[in-house]
Amino acid sequence: MNVGRNREGPECIEFLLLDLFSMMSVTSAIEPLRAANRLLGSEAYSWRFSSEDGLSARASNGISVNVNERFGTSKTPDYLFVCAGMTFVAKDQTRLNVTLNRWAREGCHMGALSMGTVFLARAGLLSDARCTLHWEGQPAFREEFPFIELSNQLYVIDRNRYTCAGGTSSLDMILHIITEAHGAVLARSIANQFQVERIRTGNVEQRSGSLVRLDTLPLQLAQAVGLMMRNFEKPLSTGSVARTFGLSVRNLERLFHRHTGCPPARYYKILRLEHARNLLLHTNLANIDIAIATGFCSSSYFSASYTEHFGHTPSQERQ
After folding, report:
1. Where are the membrane-spanning stretches (predicted)?
2. Which residue in 235, 241, 257, 285 has its CB near the most CB atoms, within 10 A?
């Protein structure tokens, strides 16, 4: 149970639904709470929905959800999860920040699902805590918050800050919370209810949209790809990558052809273009700034490369 709780009854969990929130992230968090109550035979958890204006909130799949109240109008809950998905824009960022900070001071466990981490960061609530969010939002997050420690893990619990990548990782994080309060046997029983073979721990890495999952590659090739992903702004030569891991250029090329189907330089370029796409979708950076951040020497070369790979221009991507 929460440290310092001063009221009896079920733990109260509020889900703040921001415009275009991820429905799957939210339902994956709520369902294990419902199952916990059912299996315990008592109401250990209660939950409520809020929105910034108290009106129904629209999920990214088009479904509107009726909420219980306007955010910040009820008593501080035990947990708050900011739920976001397709937008990083709040209707009233100032009011949101004020309420988030007030609840944090009152001992609320502050959390976020999927892209909700951005709003905790804007409120200054992650300045001394590790965090995570969905991999699509990570490039934009790093641009806006370069000094916050961002992890690529499925979920991160740092003291009373709870962040996750959304999707089914919400279920894993909530099961961790239930385990701490009621034990692993209950958590496993809940997982069985949903045909979940294993409960993932927070140190499991997210699977990004990259061409090939790194954990399926031979060690040296995975290390080479990791090095490429850390050097987008100033791309390394194939020779430099090969020498870093004690390989000849020919051996590195053979590894790439065998396991990715393309040469290292081509694979590297696609990684950079994928990173550029995330920046286009989730930041307000100018195209030229994105071109520079992803290692393209001019906006025209960036645009031509982007169009060749995705079938439309960077400007059309944003439309």
Report:
1. none
2. 241
